[in-house]
Write a structure and sequence with these properties.
By secondary structure, the protein is an alpha/beta fold. The chain has helices spanning 11-21, 34-40, 59-69, 83-91, 104-122, 151-162, 170-177, 187-200; strands at 2-7, 26-31, 47-51, 73-78, 96-99, 125-128, 131-134, 139-142, 145-148, 168-169, 207-210, 214-217.
Length: 222
């Protein structure tokens, strides 16, 4: 469930959008002016729907202040359709622009597309419950603590997490990580599983042993 902050002085427009969005994947938080919107805004907001023509603080100033503190997605909503207004919005940091009147389905589609695209850009990681594997930095993150992994530990943990819920035999793990021409035995897998469990600490139970077979990453649902 995503969370949108709608800064709009017309209640009927807020109600119109909220009624449509709330039945889908985006919860709408309402603010009737820029001051109220800035007071509400925090890291839990995924996207901002910002009306251009509002009384009080200038809407472009609202956008400027948001951009000085957050990278939150911003969609401008306006009755002004001229190119210069849209260009100005993008110059101030808007991610998209929609003109009134609009269909709530179109606004929703724009927001959802932005949110999903942004999630892919921001998140190059695997997460299972409290365990995060950062694929760019090659580190394990547990409760905001970074834990260094050796190359083999990283590859093994990634392989387990990418196959969550699937029982992996020692032979399958050996083939995937050591290669088909490896002449060792399953004890190498057992050794690295033991190391990973130590790295995982109190979450070591995420890796479960299947007797006479191998291992499975159970993790937890987010």
């Amino acid at each position: 469930m995503y969370k949108a902050l709608m800064i709009e002085d017309h209640k009927e427009v807020r109600d119109f959008v909220k009624e449509y969005f709330d039945h889908k994947e985006i919860e709408v938080i309402e603010a009737q002016n820029g001051y109220e919107g800035l007071a509400i805004l925090d890291d839990t907001i995924d996207i901002i729907l910002l009306d251009i023509m509002m009384p009080g603080i200038d809407d472009y100033e609202v956008c400027k202040q948001i951009r000085s503190q957050y990278n939150t997605l911003i969609v401008f909503i306006s009755a002004l359709s001229e190119d210069e207004n849209q260009l100005k919005a993008y110059e101030y940091g808007a991610d998209d622009y929609i003109t009134k009147p609009f269909k709530p389905s179109l606004l929703y589609a724009k927001c959802l597309a932005l949110l999903k695209r942004n999630k892919k850009i921001k998140t190059n990681q695997l997460q299972s419950g409290k365990v995060i594997l950062d694929l760019d930095k090659h580190i394990l993150v547990i409760e905001e603590n970074n834990i260094a992994l050796t190359d083999k530990e990283f590859k093994l943990l990634r392989y387990l997490m990418e196959n969550q819920g699937i029982v992996l035999s020692r032979e399958k793990i050996l083939d995937a990580l050591w290669g088909y021409d490896y002449y060792g035995d399953g004890r190498a897998v057992d050794t690295y599983i033991k190391r990973l469990r130590k790295r995982l600490g109190k979450y070591s139970y995420y890796i479960q042993t299947i007797v006479k077979t191998g291992y499975v990453w159970k993790g937890e649902e987010l």
